[in-house]
């Protein structure tokens, strides 16, 4: 049995507006949030972005460190999900405002899933 690593996630009270906004300041990261906005946990291998795998990993780490996403490792696979309820509790309305603006301005539209679907 492989030991599962546990990524560090800030508690909702430790999440800062500046940290969350900085994490959402990149179009690739906004695209990842758009993809994860459906509420499903996704394997990292399902995520598609026009960047190298190491860069995608960096973007996912930035989102996790800010508290925007939660990462879980199971064996050699990593899974990620949006922390929608934590974000809404800490910063009411922020996530919906960011997602609405991103959709209207087509920010992050180049990010999708391996099956070809894109974020909201």
UniProtKB/TrEMBL annotation:
Keywords: DNA-binding, Transcription, Transcription regulation
Keyword Transcription regulation among record annotations: yes
Molecular function per GO: DNA binding; DNA-binding transcription factor activity
InterPro entries: ArsR-like_HTH, HTH_ArsR_DNA-bd_dom, HTH_MetalResp_TranReg, WH-like_DNA-bd_sf, WH_DNA-bd_sf
SMART domains found in the cross-reference section: HTH_ARSR (SM00418)
Gene3D superfamilies: Winged helix-like DNA-binding domain superfamily/Winged helix DNA-binding domain (1.10.10.10)
Domain HTH arsR-type: 9-102
Superkingdom, taxonomy of origin: Bacteria
UniProt-recorded name of the protein: Transcriptional regulator
Species annotation: Saccharopolyspora elongata
């Amino acid at each position: 049995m492989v030991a599962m690593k546990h990524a560090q996630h800030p508690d909702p009270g430790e999440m800062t507006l500046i940290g969350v906004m900085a994490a959402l300041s990149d179009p690739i990261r906004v695209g990842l949030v758009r993809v994860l906005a459906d509420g499903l946990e996704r394997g990292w291998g399902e995520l598609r972005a026009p960047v190298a795998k190491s860069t995608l990993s960096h973007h996912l780490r930035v989102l996790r460190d800010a508290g925007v996403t939660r990462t879980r490792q199971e064996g050699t696979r990593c899974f990620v999900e949006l922390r929608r309820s934590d974000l809404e509790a800490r910063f009411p309305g922020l996530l919906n405002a960011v997602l609405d603006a991103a959709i209207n301005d087509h920010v992050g539209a180049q990010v999708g899933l391996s099956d070809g679907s894109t974020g909201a």
